[in-house]
Amino acid sequence: xxxxxxxxxxxxxxxxxxxxxxxxxxxxxxxxxxxxxxxxxxxxxxxxxxxxxxxxxxxxxxxxxxxxxxxxxxxxxxxxxxxxxxxxxxxxxxxxxxxxxxxxxxxxxxxxxxxxxxxxxxxxxxxxxxxxxxxxxxxxxxxxxxxxxxx
Length: 151
Known about the structure:
Blueprint: H1 4-14, H2 19-30, H3 36-42, H4 46-49, H5 57-70, H6 83-97, H7 106-109, H8 119-139
Helix pairs in contact: 1-8, 2-3, 2-5, 2-8, 5-6, 5-8, 6-8
C-alpha cells in the first residue's frame, strides 16, 4: 500500500513530470506554494540532462529543493551557512542509495534505458529522496513547511 508521498509521485508521473520536477513540486507542496517557472526550469534536468548520461534527476531535483530553502535568491539575502554540508549529506546518501544500480547517472538507474521514469526504481528514489531532503532540513534547523520568501 502506498503512502501519501508514493501516491503524489504516481500522480505527478502520470501527469508527465520527470524526477527533477517532482522533487521541486513536492518541496513547493510542502511550503504550500506554486512556482511554474521553477518547475519548468527543473525540466531542463530531466533524463540525466537529456540523454540519460548525466546525473539522475532525483539528485539534481533534490539539490534544487535544498537550494529553495537555503541558497541566496536576492541581492539582500545570504545563503544559509549549512548549505554546503546539506548538499554533501544529500550527495553521500544518494551515492549509497544508488549503489545497487551501479551509479548515480540516470542511465545507470534505468539499467541503460532512457526516457520515462521507471515506476518502481525512480518512484522509490523520489519518495526516499523527498524524505531525506526533509530530514536534512530539519537536522539543520530549517522548517520544510516554511522555505524562503519567494515574493
